[in-house]
Amino acid sequence: MLPVSRLVEAAWDEEPPTTAPHQVRKAVADLRRRIPGGADVLVTDGPGYRVAHEQCEIDVAEFGLLIRKAKLAASDGRTAEAAEILRGALALWRGPVLSGGGGPVIEAASTSIEERRLTAAEQLFELHLALGEAAELVVELRELVQQHPLRESLRGQLMIALYRSGRQAEALDEYGKVRELLSEELGIDPGPNLTKLYEGILRESPELAGPEPAAAPVVAVALPAEPPSTLPYDLADFTGRDRELAEILHGAKSGGEQGPQIVAIDGMGGCGKTSLAVRAAHRLAPDYPDGQLHIDLRGYTPGDQPVTAGIALDTLLRAVGVPGHLIPDDAPARTALWRATLVGKRLLILIDNAADAAAIRPLLPLSPGCLVMVTSRARLVDLDGAQWISIGVMPPEDSAMLVAETLGVERVAAEPEAAVELARLCGHLPLALRIATARLRNRPRWTLQYLAERLRDETRRLDELSSGARSVSATLRLSYQALDEECRNAFSTLALHPGSDMDVHAAGALLGSSARDAEDLLEMLLDVHLVQQPEIGLYTFHDLVRSFAQSLLVESPEDSGAVERLLGYYLTATEVACDLLYSGRRRRSTGIEPSTAELPDLGTPERARKWFQREQTSLLAAVTLAERRGHDRYVVCLARNLVFQLNDLGLLEEFGGLSRVAVAAAGRLEDLALLGVSLSNLGVACWKLGRLSEGLEAARKSRDVAIRLGDLHTQAHSESILGQFNSLLGDFSAALGHMETAIAHERDLDMPRAEAESLTILSTLYEQWGRYEEARDAAQRSAELSRQLGQHEGLPGAVTDLAFAHVGLGAYEEADRCLAEARALYGDAGNEVNLALTLALSADVENRLGRPPRVPDQAELALDMMRTNSSPLRRAKVENVVGRLRRRQGDVAAALALHTHAHELASSLSYRIEQAYALAGMADVLGDTPDAARYRAEAEQLFTEMGVPADHRRS
């Protein structure tokens, strides 16, 4: 019996009103009216009230009874039964008990009852963990942990469930969260039990491994007489994938003696994993006469939750004819029944769209004879015994076949080039190709070219690749949403990289992390096929994945910071590489702090050269990114470093384009020092490209800026370029004045590298002028300086210039020795622009020495190189050298063609010395004809104007 006075005390925290006893009686009367038969349940007993137990069932009492029953069942080893009883006890709860107000007595009672509920919940989770369950418990455990974040026992159970589900990192993260919370809220560390659990997870202690599902006594159910088949239909227009299909069929027929054969197919969303698996399953169906089953686990299905193991097993058991009333309620028992039913049977089971290995394991038969095929976007490396087959996008020929098959051969034949472009813009991704062709089928007035034009807009490409319920964007979004937050952030940030490939150091710079941490994140993205790996250490986005990742970006300080970190990394790395490769290069202040990002190993010139060549496309793209983002100082400074490499490789169009961008950026900065350097580089590019007017103007402006600043280094370089331009234009006297000024400055400033380059220009000038001794001396001095510097990029050019001087002097043996050295210095990967001239002159000298042509012919190799090169100046000179050789060899037709083309090039460029030699060569070939006389007269006029004596000309 509970006295009214006790109820008053419980209801009012402070001094109760005088009407308190009356209010209690009124409340009891109201409660009696609300409860069916309430007068018989709440009875008056003297000065208070009591509950008539025999008249009703009280939830709290029933809860206590069920808890005792569960404890008894658990002590008898009936774990599954104990879990069911506890779940029933907890189901009595409808919300917080005694909530909404009251004094300390009610609050204490509420806390006591809630503690009993939490204890029961922990006991239930403990039983489920003992039954081998883990992944199924995570959601419920997270909810309770959020409600009671300081309860270490619940947190420990969540950590165990995560760990046993293959989510070790998340389990460790939970410990970090509770440790931080306890420190902030209470100023304490986690208790010894939770700490011990954390340490066990960290070292992957075997003691924490979950038990195998209990082997419940089961009775196998006979399969139906008619073998079940629930495979999806095989696409009639399935196209390509012959190699992958053969690999699957081979894998399915090998192994499996100790258990089921498992063939797992992984690949990015939309690459056609399911279609390929279904095609293979239909091919293999005759080998599995007891049935062929398909189950979609919906691991990456829009709008759906993944199918649990229990539901999947229910579906599979019913498919093989097990009546519903014989299917156990709990997942472990269903697994046992499933495995018992398949003993001695030959079934093919296609498990489609799996998110993780934990979802697959309960579905695997134990006995041999069955084939399990799995598809997943991620490579489930912890699925033991599986033969993995990764599939990527389709090869171009398969893409073309798919477009023709789905759209019609006639329509594709009418627009073959547009069909190829359409496949390319779809990234050769089967889903994208099917969506694109479906849109074309539904819009017969659209041409392939029209859709291709729509797809060229990268900002709208993903929108275009959507048809009905199918969408490339939605498919990729599911893979993205399956990532944890760190990976999602990394995925979108990495899309800021402008190049086609990125290495771990560039990724680390973007992410603001170490290269190793960046590699770990990239490997996680690789596992789920959101990036690809063309070679070890390099990663790339598929075009459509990149478009999707970039669509996630919003302008933010974080993204701007990532871009600046990347540009800073590239600037610092190229500075280090240039210092190694181009010794003697003058270091200039960039006005930018060196990057703190981890750099690749650039310890030797060879490593630096390989890095530069590998990163070349990304570096050029980085300059474009810097320009687009308004980082003009990075534009100028990166461009200055890159032009060394572009010049060295003979990539002259890129050299010229980059130099123009740098000049514009330096102008916007109003930085005269950077403008002078950029104009000087533009002058060099224009000289090599034969754009003499533009180059001459750039070199003059560069010199004028340098004089204003008192920058003798840039002035010297500009004078050298002006000398080169005047030499090309045939004004040898003016050219000599510029070169002498440049070389004097370079010597005074102790610039041996620049002096060596200027001396090669001076040697060429003297050779064109017919002053062969002076040409020889200048080339020898240039070669000596290059050797002293230990640099080789300028040395083969200087040695070739020396060979030209020796030829002019008739010293053919000396010329031959020089050319052999130059060829060896160039090696197999030399600058083709310069190597072509060396090869052409080598063929000429060997002919003069009476030797037969080599195989392959060096002259023809030189011509082949120049046909694909962008230097018309060098091509004109090479064609004149080979033309004279062909005339001596008696091939007058080839000689005439070469000199004629050289004349066209040289005339269009005002390259007067080669224009004159081309005319002289044409005259020599044509002999005693009117045209020959005219050509000879024109050549003589040019030679005379340039001051080249008749007895000091090339022959």
How is this fold's topology laid out?
Blueprint: E1 2-3, H1 4-11, H2 20-34, H3 38-41, E2 42-45, E3 48-51, H4 59-75, H5 79-90, H6 104-130, H7 138-147, H8 152-164, H9 168-186, H10 192-202, H11 242-252, E4 261-266, H12 273-284, E5 292-296, H13 309-319, H14 331-341, E6 348-352, E7 371-376, E8 386-390, H15 396-407, H16 409-414, H17 416-425, H18 430-442, H19 448-456, H20 461-464, E9 466-467, E10 470-471, H21 472-481, H22 485-494, E11 502-503, H23 504-511, H24 515-527, E12 532-535, E13 538-540, H25 543-551, H26 557-581, H27 605-628, H28 632-649, H29 652-669, H30 672-689, H31 692-709, H32 712-728, H33 732-748, H34 752-769, H35 772-789, H36 795-808, H37 812-826, H38 832-848, H39 858-867, H40 872-888, H41 892-909, H42 912-926, H43 930-946
Parallel strand pairs: 4-7, 4-8, 5-6, 6-7
Antiparallel strand pairs: 1-3, 2-3, 9-10, 11-13, 12-13
Helix pairs in contact: 1-2, 4-5, 5-6, 6-8, 7-8, 8-9, 8-10, 9-10, 11-12, 13-14, 15-17, 15-18, 17-19, 22-24, 23-24, 23-26, 26-27, 26-28, 27-28, 28-29, 28-30, 29-30, 30-31, 30-32, 31-32, 32-33, 32-34, 33-34, 34-35, 34-36, 35-36, 36-37, 36-38, 37-38, 38-39, 38-40, 39-40, 40-41, 40-42, 41-42, ...
Keywords:
955 residues; mainly alpha; five-stranded parallel sheet; three-stranded antiparallel sheet; 43 helices; 13 strands; 63% helix; elongated
Written account of the structure:
- 44% of the residues are buried.
- Helices cover 63% and strands 5% of the residues.
- The model has no long low-confidence stretch (mean pLDDT 86).
- The radius of gyration is 41 Å and the shape is elongated.
- It is mainly α and 955 residues long.
- A hairpin with a 2-residue loop joins strand 12 and strand 13 (538-540).
- The longest helix is centred in the N-terminal third of the chain and has 27 residues, at 104-130.
- The strands form four sheets. Strands 5-6-7-4-8 form a five-stranded parallel β-sheet, sandwiched between helices. The protein has a three-stranded antiparallel β-sheet with strand order 1-3-2. Strands 11-13-12 form a three-stranded antiparallel β-sheet.
- It starts with a strand and ends in a 9-residue tail after the last helix.
